[in-house]
Amino acid sequence: MGCAGSSQTKGDGTLKKVRKPKPWKHPQPLTKSQLLQLREEFWDTAPHYGGRKEIWDALRAASEADISLAQAIVDSAGVIVQNADLTICYDERGAKYELPKYVLSEPTNLIRES
Predict the structure, then answer these.
(1) Where are the alpha helices (DSSP H) in the chain?
(2) Which of 12, 13, 57, 112 has the maximum number of C-beta atoms within 10 A of its C-beta?
(3) What is the pLDDT of residues 67-79, one digit of tens each?
(4) Is the pTM of this model over 0.90?
């Protein structure tokens, strides 16, 4: 029996399944190389936002994998998925991990380089 203010995060006992992010648009059109540069900059600095390096590494691997493999990666790393598109996750210690959409998928206004 818990106190009056306590609640369970998922009362039905199910875990959120990872899914592809919804289509999104970057504020300014990007080329593929600019998108890759943004991703590299994020992953290079991500551990400085807090949390554990091994969780950041698992989230990076999951973001670069197909959906079924991404699910296996977050499950085996003990990542708690708040948003099914992986934009907000937690580790077992309660540390929060926020991923920008540009590391998870391509924007709808991506410019194809010729």
Answers:
(1) 32-45, 53-64, 67-77
(2) 57
(3) 999 999 999 999 9
(4) no
